UniProtKB/TrEMBL annotation:
Residue spans of biased composition, Polar residues class: 20-29
PANTHER family assigned: ACYL-COA N-ACYLTRANSFERASES (NAT) SUPERFAMILY PROTEIN, GCN5-RELATED N-ACETYLTRANSFERASE 6, CHLOROPLASTIC
Record protein name field: N-acetyltransferase domain-containing protein
Start and end residues of each stretch annotated as Disordered: 1-29
Originating species: Populus trichocarpa (Western balsam poplar)
N-acetyltransferase domain location: 167-257
Length: 257
């Protein structure tokens, strides 16, 4: 999952949108296979002690970039539960654990700029409460990935099938750059509180602050709630991309930042 422009199967896994999971993270269960120095009993870190460029507050929540490993892990677990939501596979718990571990390491790899494609793991966290001791695992209620990419030579939209050299300049500026949203999911405990809408708002503002004019997202054609959310945020279907996405059963949506 480390390559956003990989196979259609990879993209399907990455671009599940608004699949709100029933989050239940067990520290004893996750610690067995994380293979790192994660502290699952770590208390939520006060915002003033964290180093991050920007944040967006609304109600009892704060949207910002993930900073510490426990936040990356929780984002990965949310995505695992989202991916396996509603499935009756007898080994679903094992699948979720494996998915979360792989996604945790993938998130950290994607943070490194590769060929000009910078990626941020955005999270929504509950504001700290001086009367409540809350672990990081319980504080993160939503997540998405926001990457900055460049159109390849000849492309008019991401993924367009054009005859272009395999290796061409993607270190473009201005209209060649675009924002890309993926892996948007929200914890079951935080549904219907505006989490997804406000994370998207924050992501679009980040895109705009980088001087980028457009943001894109793929959404499954049967995912009506996601389509409605994106439409509400100003996204529109890129009709020119629809014919080549029939097999994947997805739409490409675009929003002018």
């Amino acid at each position: 999952m480390s390559n956003y422009s990989g196979s259609s199967e990879t993209r399907k896994k990455e671009e599940l949108s608004i699949q709100v999971p029933a989050t239940s993270i067990s520290s004893s269960e996750t610690q067995r296979f994380a293979g790192s120095d994660l502290r699952f009993d770590r208390l939520q870190v006060p915002e003033k002690e964290l180093m991050h460029d920007r944040k967006f507050e609304f109600g009892q929540f704060v949207a910002r970039e993930a900073v510490i490993d426990e936040e990356y892990w929780t984002a990965a677990w949310l995505r695992a539960e989202s991916h396996w939501e509603g499935r009756n596979d007898r080994y679903v718990d094992n699948h979720k654990r494996k998915f979360a571990e792989q996604e945790f390491h993938a998130i950290k790899r994607r943070r490194t700029s590769l060929h000009g494609q910078k990626c941020r793991c955005i999270i929504m966290v509950r504001k700290e409460d001086k009367h409540v001791k809350r672990t990081v695992l319980k504080g993160v209620v939503g997540t998405l990935d926001l990457s900055v990419r460049c159109l390849l030579h000849g492309e008019t939209f991401p993924g367009e099938r054009v005859k272009a050299p395999l290796f061409c300049s993607i270190h473009g500026t201005g209209p060649n750059r675009y924002g890309y949203v993926a892996n948007l999911c929200v914890a079951k405990s935080a549904r219907r509180q505006g989490i997804a809408t406000n994370m998207l708002h924050f992501a679009i503002e980040l895109v705009k602050s980088n001087g980028i004019e457009h943001a894109y997202v793929h959404v499954h054609r049967n995912n009506t709630p996601a389509q409605k959310l994106y439409e509400k945020m100003g996204f529109e279907i890129v009709e020119a991309a629809s014919s080549q996405l029939v097999e994947e059963q997805t739409y490409l949506l675009c929003c002018k930042a």
